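If you are new to this repository, start here. Below is one unmodified record pulled from the training split, so you can see the exact layout before writing a loader.
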Amino acid sequence: MKKKILSLGVAIVLIVCTFATLSACGRKLKDREITPTIEDIWQDHTGTVYAEVGNLGDYLKDKDAGKEMHFSINGGEWCRGFSWRESEENPGNCIYAFLSTKSEEEKITEYLTEGESLHIQPGTTINVSARTPENYYYKPSAESEQKTYTLKSKLQNALSWYLPISRFSRDVDSSGFRFSDDAETQDEKKFVFYYHESNPRIVEIGVPASTWDESEKMYRHYIRELTEEEKATVAGFGLEYKVIPYNEKYLITHDHGGKSVNGSFLEQEENEGKPSVYGWTSMLNLQESHVWEFMPNDAMRVKSFVFLVRQRATKDAVQSQAMAFWYIYSRERVGEYRKITAEQAYEMMNTQEVVIVDVRTQSEYDEGHIQNAVLIPNETIGSEPPTNLPDKNAIILVYCRSGRRSEEAARKLVNLGYVIIYDFGGINDWTYGTVTD
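And here is the target side for that same chain:
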């Protein structure tokens, strides 16, 4: 009996599957009422080839289907390309990557489509057309008109691939930027960017020269001008620069509250998947609007310029990877922030002239506060110094209820230019009495 029931169940399943298969085979797929257009084709610094495809209409609203596009090269088989991102400048357009490179050292050996189903030689002129692929509901769209593009024959990579970000200033660090991938290169062999002593807005390229300082028992690094031969070498790099105006999103906020430039993110956002000529200039033209001002730590305010460097693309070669640089325009000591205990704060109150700041709310302050404390609620500390804290050089002791708001307020005051800030936590840990007047 059980065998009969099992056999009947299997038969029913087979019938259902067969019916579903026949239904699918008989499904009439819809036509897409769009014909894509290829607006532009370009390569990024890795040699990857992109196409901006337009006239896609509602296709991009289908987030699963819209991520894929089919491309045909020289009338050959249709190969997959994948969405990079939608075009911000042209709604209804999307950028797709459809060819990658296989390279050895600085030479491209061949171009590959997705799945390596097609191999193309470097330097080849290709005719590309695009269409939306078939899926469960739709037939492939009509194909676009062909667009011609000549693939680059090589990578140029005088800029090191191994240093995505470098930092430099008046003082040349021995780990400064170099144009060579040779890790053994001596300091004197490296090229660095620096600004001219007489005009900090003029950026030049030089070579660090190390000098032994007997009194300090260490090497000091200075910048010497390039020789004529070195200038010719640098000129051959065909460098491009792009100054980056200050933008908060390009900064990293660290655990201690300080900030620094996120060069990797900046390089990716400004360079990836874009044509090599967009937004670049052949010379640095630094303006006040390009000055970045931020706190790398609790005691220092830094003004700096930030810019990207890469090589120009040529008819034969793609540009090298962009690299982010920032150099220091000025440093200013602005304050000191330290955490201390309630016991240490009490001792300072009895032995030094200090200003005590309560950063709780008015109601909390009225319930009980440390004698002589000035009320400055944390949420009221903004971009301007509090009017009841006129002396930025005063010794300031900050507290709240538990210690969270006092730390936040102390960092704000340091950022506003107060020089000596002590955070002694919360009044919950204060055992030396309070007043209510």
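Two things worth knowing about this chain: Helices lie at 2-25, 228-235, 263-271, 342-351, 362-367, 404-415. The CA atoms of residues 160 and 181 lie 6 Å apart.
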